[in-house]
Design brief:
The complex is a heterodimer of chains A (247) and B (411).
Chain A: E1 2-13, E2 17-29, E3 34-38, H1 45-52, E4 60-65, E5 68-69, H2 74-79, E6 81-85, H3 96-106, H4 111-125, H5 140-152, E7 158-162, H6 170-185, E8 189-194, H7 197-203, E9 206-211, E10 214-220, H8 221-228, H9 233-246
Parallel strand pairs in A: 3-8, 3-9, 6-7, 7-8
Antiparallel strand pairs in A: 1-2, 1-4, 4-5, 9-10
Helix pairs in contact in A: 3-4, 3-5, 5-6, 8-9
Chain B: H1 3-18, H2 21-55, E1 59-63, H3 69-77, E2 82-84, H4 90-95, E3 101-104, H5 109-115, E4 122-124, H6 130-157, H7 178-186, H8 189-216, H9 218-223, H10 229-267, H11 275-287, H12 292-319, H13 323-345, H14 361-371, H15 377-402, H16 405-408
Parallel strand pairs in B: 1-2, 1-3
Antiparallel strand pairs in B: 3-4
Helix pairs in contact in B: 1-10, 2-8, 2-10, 7-11, 7-14, 8-10, 8-12, 8-13, 8-14, 10-11, 10-12, 10-15, 12-13, 12-14, 12-15, 13-14
The chains are: A alpha/beta (247), B mainly alpha (411).
Chain lengths: 247, 411
C-alpha cells in the first residue's frame, strides 16, 4: 500500500528563488495495483517518487509505504521498496552477481538466502550467461535485467518505477513493461512514472496526471476517458493540464 | 551505527577500488615505485654524469706565463689538464663550454716566487658548471701543492723544520648515535613525504566514491538501500582512509628497502672519493639506522592527519557534481597541504607551543624531532589531541554534508 497525503516539496534556487516542485500531491495505491504518474518533464514526477523512496524529505505532507511513514521510519520504508529509475545505475567494476549480493547484504539478507535468490532471479530473467561478467561490459538489456534483479533481491512489497524505459530500445522497453506487469501479478503495489502515453494505457489501473507540481486529475482509464470525452490518452493529458490552466 | 552495513559497504568499495586503474596507480604504484625510481634512476644518471665529468681531461688555456716556463711545463706535464693554445676569445669559449678553464699567471710569476713576493694566480671558470668546477678544483690543488712545495723549500733554505707552519693536526669525530644521525638527515624529508602521500593516497578514492558515483548514477542506487546515511559515509570514508594509509605505508616500506639497497647503486662507479659519492655513502648508512621507535611515532602521529585528509577530501569531493569538478576543487588543496609540510623541512624552525597548534606544520616538526630521538611529550600530546579534534570535526562535517539533499542531488 502507498498513501501520499498532501506531499509538497520546495527547493531554494539562488536565481529563481523558491521552487515548488510538488504541491499538495495526494493519492492512494492498493496492493496488486499499478498507479501511473503521467506528466511532462519537470512536472514533479521524480520529486514525488524520490519522496516516497525517502531519498528526499517532504517539505510538508506525509506518506506511508507498506505501513511505514517516510519521515519517521525511512530505513523500514526502503527495506520494503524496490526503486528502479533511469538514473539508478550499476557499479561498472562489479559483476552482476556481486551487485545483487551487495544490495542483498545491505537489505539484511544472509549469504545463503542471497545465493538462492540470485539463482531464482537469474533463471527468471535469463541472466546465467552474464551473471559473472562486469557490468561495464553489458548491453543495455543486460544492464536493465541486472537492475531489475537488484530491486527484487529483497522481494519488496512496493515497487517504484521512475521512467524506467527512458532511452531504451523497443525490445528492452517491452521487457521492462512485462516485468512491471509481473510485479502486479505477484500482488506488489506498483507506482510507475512516465511521459509515454502508450505505456500508461498498457499498464496502469489508475492514472494520476501531474503538471507544474500539482496532481490535476486522477482516475481509471475508463473514468478519465468519460470525464474528458476523449479516447486518446494524449488528448486527455492535454485537456487535464488545460483545465487547470483555465482554472 | 550498524557495523555490519559499514563493513559491507567498505568491502564493496575495496573490491571496486582495487579494480580501478587510477586508484591503483595513486595508492599502490606511485608510493611503491617513486622512491626506488628517484634513488636508482636519479642515482644512476648522477653517477653517470659524475663519472663522465671526472674522466674528462679538461681543456685549459694559460694566460701569460711566457716568463714562467717552469710552471707552464709542470702544468703541461700534469695528466689532469690538456693545455691548449690560448684563443683571443677565451672568456666566451668558457661561457660556451668549449674551454673548461683559463689560468692567469701574473707577469714574472716564477721570478717573483724566487724573490719572495706573493704574486696572485687567477683561475677563470664557469660558475656552477660541473666540468668547469672539477677543472677549477684540480687547478687549485695544483697551485696549493706548488705553494706547499715553495714553503717547504724556503724553510729548508733557512734551516727550519717544515712542521713550523703546521704545529698541530685536528679532526672531526661524530659522537651522536647512528639513529640520531639518520634522524637529522631524514627528519625533515620523511614527514614531508608522509604528508604528501597521505593526501594523494586519499585523493582518487575520495573523488571516485563521491562525485564519481554521483556522475555515474550509482549514488542514487545506493541511497535506495535501507542503510543509514551515517553508515554509508563511514563505509566509504574507511575506504578513503585505507587509500591514504596504504599510500603512506607502502611509501615508507619502499623507502626503507630502497635506503638499504640503494646506497651502493647511487655511489656506483663514481667512487667514494668524490663528495657526492661520500654523501651517498653517508646517506645510505644513516637511513638504515633510522630509529624504529621514531618511525612508529611518525605513524601514530600521522593517523589522525590521515583521517583529517580523508574526511576533508571526501566532503569537498561530495559537493562536486562530477569527477572533473572534484578534481578542480581538490587539486589546489595540494598546494595548501604542501606549504606547511615544506616549512617544516626548513632548518632552524623548531617546535613551540604556538606552532604545535598549526595543523600539518605541527606534524612535520614533531616528526622531525621524533626521528632525531627527541620526545617532547607535552607537544606530542597537544599535537595528537588537536589533530584528533580536527579529524573528528572533518568527519562530522562529512556526515552532515552527506545528509544534505542539495549536496547529494546537486544538479
Amino acid at each position: 500500500m502507498i498513501e501520499a497525503r498532501n506531499l509538497t516539496k520546495t527547493f531554494r534556487d539562488k536565481k529563481r528563488g523558491e521552487i515548488r516542485a510538488t504541491d499538495d500531491v495526494s493519492f492512494l495505491v492498493a496492493p496488486g495495483q499499478i498507479y501511473g504518474l503521467l506528466g511532462a518533464n519537470g512536472a514533479g514526477k521524480t520529486t514525488t517518487l524520490r519522496m516516497l523512496a525517502t531519498l528526499l524529505t517532504p517539505t510538508s505532507g506525509s506518506a506511508a509505504l507498506a505501513g511505514f511513514d517516510v519521515a519517521r521510519e525511512p530505513e523500514k520504508v526502503r527495506a520494503n521498496v524496490g526503486f528502479l529509475a533511469a538514473s539508478t545505475a550499476l557499479y561498472g567494476r562489479l559483476t552482476a552477481r556481486e551487485m545483487i549480493t551487495y544490495f542483498g547484504r545491505l537489505n539484511g539478507m544472509a549469504d545463503p538466502a542471497i545465493k538462492a535468490r540470485i539463482k531464482q532471479l537469474s533463471a527468471e530473467l535469463d541472466m546465467d550467461e552474464f551473471l559473472d561478467r562486469r557490468c561495464d561490459k553489458f548491453s543495455t538489456g543486460m544492464k536493465q535485467k541486472t537492475s531489475i534483479a537488484r530491486t527484487l533481491v529483497h522481494d519488496p512489497a512496493v515497487m517504484i518505477f521512475d521512467e524506467p524505459t527512458l532511452g531504451l530500445d523497443v525490445m528492452t522497453a517491452r521487457a521492462i513493461v512485462k516485468f512491471v506487469r509481473d510485479c502486479k501479478g505477484r500482488g506488489k503495489t506498483v507506482i510507475y512514472s512516465t511521459h509515454v502515453m502508450s505505456e500508461v494505457e498498457k499498464l496502469c489501473d489508475t492514472v494520476g496526471i501531474i503538471h507544474g507540481g500539482k496532481l490535476l486529475a486522477e482516475g481509471t482509464l475508463p473514468e478519465l476517458r468519460t470525464r474528458y470525452a476523449e479516447q486518446d490518452m494524449e488528448e486527455i493529458f492535454v485537456k487535464a493540464a488545460g483545465v487547470e490552466e483555465a482554472a | 551505527m550498524n557495523w555490519s552495513n559499514i563493513f559491507t559497504i567498505y568491502r564493496k568499495e575495496l573490491t571496486d577500488q582495487l579494480r580501478d586503474r587510477r586508484t591503483l596507480i595513486s595508492v599502490i604504484v606511485i608510493p611503491t615505485f617513486v622512491m626506488p625510481l628517484i634513488v636508482f634512476g636519479m642515482g644512476k644518471v648522477m653517477s653517470g654524469v659524475m663519472k663522465r665529468a671526472e674522466a674528462e681531461v679538461p681543456s685549459v688555456a694559460i694566460i701569460g706565463g711566457a716568463d714562467s716556463p717552469g710552471v707552464v711545463a709542470e702544468l703541461k706535464k700534469s695528466p689532469k689538464f690538456k693545455i691548449v693554445a690560448t684563443p683571443e676569445d677565451w672568456k666566451e669559449r668558457i661561457g660556451d663550454k668549449k674551454l673548461r678553464l683559463a689560468i692567469g699567471l701574473p707577469e714574472k710569476f716564477e721570478a717573483g716566487l724566487a724573490a719572495g713576493a706573493a704574486p696572485a694566480v687567477k683561475i677563470f671558470h664557469f660558475q656552477n658548471d660541473l666540468n668547469s668546477g672539477i677543472a677549477a678544483r684540480a687547478a687549485e690543488d695544483f697551485f696549493k701543492d706548488l705553494r706547499d712545495r715553495t714553503v717547504t723549500a724556503r724553510l729548508v733554505e733557512r734551516g727550519l723544520p717544515k712542521e713550523i707552519v703546521r704545529p698541530f693536526e685536528f679532526a672531526r669525530e661524530n659522537v651522536a648515535p647512528p639513529e640520531k644521525v639518520g634522524g637529522s638527515v631524514f627528519g625533515g624529508f620523511v614527514p614531508y613525504l608522509v604528508i604528501i602521500l597521505c593526501f594523494t593516497g586519499a585523493m582518487y578514492p575520495a573523488m571516485d566514491l563521491t562525485a564519481g558515483e554521483k556522475e555515474r548514477g550509482t549514488m542514487e542506487t545506493l541511497l535506495c538501500a535501507p542503510t543509514a546515511r551515517v553508515d554509508i559515509v563511514m563505509g566509504k570514508f574507511l575506504m578513503v582512509l585505507t587509500g591514504s594509509l596504504s599510500a603512506m605505508g607502502l611509501a615508507l616500506l619502499s623507502m626503507g628497502i630502497t635506503a638499504m639497497a640503494g646506497g651502493a647503486i647511487m655511489m656506483g662507479g663514481s667512487g667514494a672519493t668524490t663528495q657526492l659519492g661520500a654523501a651517498a655513502k653517508t646517506s645510505a648508512a644513516s637511513m638504515g639506522t633510522i630509529d624504529p621507535v621514531g618511525l612508529l611515532g611518525v605513524l601514530a602521529m600521522t593517523l589522525p592527519v590521515a583521517v583529517l585528509f580523508s574526511a576533508l577530501q571526501f566532503t569537498v569531493a561530495l559537493f562536486a557534481k562530477s569527477y572533473k569538478e572534484a578534481q578542480s576543487y581538490i587539486g589546489p588543496m595540494v598546494i595548501v597541504v604542501l606549504m606547511p609540510a615544506m616549512v617544516g623541512m626548513l632548518p632552524g624552525i623548531d617546535l613551540n607551543a604556538k606552532l604545535a597548534l598549526v595543523p600539518l606544520l605541527n606534524l612535520s616538526l614533531v616528526c622531525k624531532e621524533m626521528l632525531s630521538g627527541v620526545w617532547h611529550w607535552n607537544y606530542i600530546a597537544i599535537i595528537f589531541g588537536s589533530s584528533c579534534l580536527y579529524a573528528a570535526v572533518a568527519l562530522a562535517l562529512a556526515v552532515r554534508m552527506f545528509k544534505r539533499e542539495d549536496v547529494i542531488f546537486r544538479a
